[in-house]
Amino acid sequence: MIKQTKISRRGLLKGAGATAAFAGASTLGAPMIWAQNIKNVTLRQIGTGVSNLNEIAEKVKEDLGFTLTMTALDTDSAAQRVATQPGSFDIADIEYISCKKVWPAGNLQAMDASKLDNYDKIAQTFRSGKLTPTSTIAQGTAPHTVGFVDGPNGKTFADNESGWMTMVPTIYNADTLGIRPDLIGRPIESWTELLNPEFKGKASILDISSIGIMDMAMVCEAMGEITYGDKGNMTKEEIDKTLAIFTEAKKNGQFRAFWKTFDESVNLMASGEVVIQSMWAPAITAVKSRGIPCVYQPLKEGYRSWGGGIGIAASLSGLEKDAAYEYINWYLSGWTGGFLMRQGYYSAVPETSKNFMTDNEWGYWFEGKPATGDITSPFGDKLAVAGETRDGGSFYERMGAVKCWNSVMKENQYMVRKWNEFIAA
Amino acid sequence: MGLTVSSRANMIGWLQAAPLALVLGGFLVVPVIMIVVVSFWGATEWSIYPAFLFDNYEFLFTSWVTYSVFLKTFKYAFITWVLTLCIGFTVAYFLAFHVRNLSWQIALFLLCTIPFWTSNIIRMISWIPFLGRNGIANQTLISWGVIDEPMEWLLFSDFSVILAFVHLYTLFMVVPIFNSMMRIDRSLLEAAVDGGASGLQTLWNVVIPLCKPGIMIGTIFVVTLVMGDFITVRFMSGSQSANVGRLISNDIGLLLYPSACATAVVLLCTVLIVIAIFLRLVDIRKEL
Question: Inter-chain contact B252–A80, Cβ cutoff 8 Å?
Fold first, then answer.
């Protein structure tokens, strides 16, 4: 089956070699010329469960005509596939921290920003790094620092908008702790609450080292136990101290469980095993859509943030590469952004997503305004009724309070080993 | 003439052994050699490179985590072994000696295998809603007034890990022991009773010695399965507990393949030593 499509593709390329060169040069012409043949293309996407949704693949088939297959993995497994199995994917939907790790492996190719129709509408966070012209950039691996390389074959990250992108940004968010307000029954205001003995045996943290360590740092800093030089680039002593605090808490039975995939966090929260934990926005949405109260609690110390994007495999060329660009342009054109924003994420191109959301939805999710009617998840479950507002408020309030980005540190290998000790302790 | 016949027989012998040898060579020996080779390689965050380093082993043997995790792995294996042996032996004994009718024996034996028609991950995960804080077990006990507060240790604890292991692997004990028991010549039991042996004496001096090969085969199954497991420990302990398998899977997740290979080699050697000891105790070949 696969072989057959390959042969037909090759035949096609032979015949259309000359037109291919022309089509490549003219972005406007490309989709029209390939329109008949692009239906034979299958692009294989790997990524995390939060954005590898069948609804997106179905919409791609409908709008673009080609087939997109999706494999959902956990954050580490996705990065691992990109680094070690270059033949197993065409599109990598991964986080910027994973990009920092896997880019040197050479399995992704730099993308030409001039081929992106909506490049100038991409949020500044992914370009200059500044949310607003006056913002300061938070600690950690901010996406713009690993978003560009010097040229089509660039190996090192560029510190400016070079026009060659490692990944095209898709979604991002400000993460915080999720809580069960009905089971806690009092206001939660600080990251320190994660280690509060009051929640002994009812807390959880995620077992993905590069993200978990940042949640830990937010807690330790809030407790006043550790003052970090730079949370996004800890020293060995800072790593030791941070994990010592959490190892002690673990030994005292503070944690009910650790989670690694998004569904695990949903189940822990929905079943009441855990009342306070590290969580991601769609997990909150998933708990709420079961009719269980769950709050993405804004905390006074601020948020931990992350960004995700799409990279294309180094081996991709010809028709498939054109299809990949077409897919990315489609991705940024709004439908997917709207879909993902209804799960609580922010689209990297908010302007276009707005066209695919109602005023009520846009007001609720982006502007932090009270809902004027029911708010539903992309799967149709009711999340909020008229009058309710989003936890944390508007885009600028939430993203403006980001204190650190998920990070890959210089001492990453040391941190990973210490993390393994923490899990085994 | 005689020579050619024997060399031809020789050829046929080789040919007959060849398919299995090739399969084992290609899918067992070569991968194991690769694992050993890679265990000496080096790793960066995104790649592995050929080298001849002892770093991976050095780190493994100098970290307290390794020892505590191996200890934990043995603990799980031992407790699971004791429980599966007791349960497995009892079930097999009942099937072999108390159920007299062959069709009933077959029917009940098949009944034991029914849970194995589903995936073992599903069987394992189905314990989670049962044992949870607000799960069926706790709610039932509270409604009966047996306990006031939900028992937290039921889930995400060593208890739940071992419970899942026992549930998953008891059948591996039942089958070989049942098989050995069915081969016991019934006249031996009659002779023991005629000789004045009590039920317990017959069990201890006749049945158990004759079941040894079955017990040993079951033991090898259970011990190797538990020692090589990682997913049961991860799910049932809520990721809070680690055995060697999880150490390996964590390393793989973080792209530290050489380190994972080194751990795998150490685990493989440990399991082989354990099995060698078992085989010293009972000569399975002789008694089969």
Answer: yes
